[in-house]
Write a structure and sequence with these properties.
The strands form four sheets. Strands 3-4-5 form a three-stranded antiparallel beta sheet. A three-stranded antiparallel beta sheet has the order 8-9-10, with helices on one face. It has a two-stranded antiparallel sheet with strand order 1-2. It has two domains: 105 residues, Homing Intron 3 (I-Ppo) Encoded Endonuclease, Chain A (Alpha-Beta Complex), CATH 3.90.75.20; 58 residues, GCC-box Binding Domain. β3 and β4 form a beta hairpin. By secondary structure, the chain is of the alpha+beta class.
Length: 171
């Protein structure tokens, strides 16, 4: 079934970045075997669980949905196939509507968190041992080699601005 704003409003109440079950109308259970007893048992409780990858998920009508996508639809309507929902602050469990934005895949990649194996402290800046210098790159494009780490960081930050990266990128 296609998730519509109306249907989701009948199922959930949104509070402070989370979804809570409502007592659902009996019309929802004509095609389900779970019945009204299960419906009233969960009403008022927080919906969903945390997936190992950090995203929140909700099982609705025997289908698992990502909670941030349901919240987006609840507030803004349908999400087209070529769009994604970006968590602006990089926290996958922070589903406040003000932390979510609808973006293309490319735009979403311009707001990535710093990699776990980053040792320089800045995305796209690394130390090249053979030359003993700092290198800066963006999207596989070499920006230069620098004796001073600060110069490499400045080159990377300038390239991010020129290419329209989000201010949270690499944080």
């Amino acid at each position: 079934m296609k998730m519509t704003r109306k249907y989701l409003n009948e199922c959930f109440e949104y509070r402070e970045g989370d979804l809570f079950w409502k007592v659902r109308p009996t019309s929802h259970f004509k095609r389900l075997r779970t019945g009204l007893m299960r419906n009233s048992r969960f009403a008022g409780r927080k919906a969903g669980t945390k997936h190992p990858d950090g995203y929140q998920q909700v099982k609705l009508d025997n289908v698992i949905y990502l909670k941030h996508r349901l919240i987006w639809v609840l507030f803004n309507g349908e999400i087209s196939a070529e769009k994604q929902i970006d968590h602006i602050n990089h926290h996958r469990s922070d589903n406040r509507i003000e932390n979510l934005r609808l973006v293309t895949k490319q735009e979403n990649l311009r707001n990535c968190a710093k990699g776990r194996n980053n040792s320089s402290g800045t995305t796209g800046v690394y130390f090249h041992r053979a030359s003993g210098k700092w290198c800066a790159q963006i999207n596989k494009t070499h920006l230069g080699t620098f004796t001073d780490k600060a110069d490499a960081i400045d080159a990377r930050k300038q390239a991010e601005v020129e290419r329209g990266f989000h201010t949270n990128h690499g944080i």
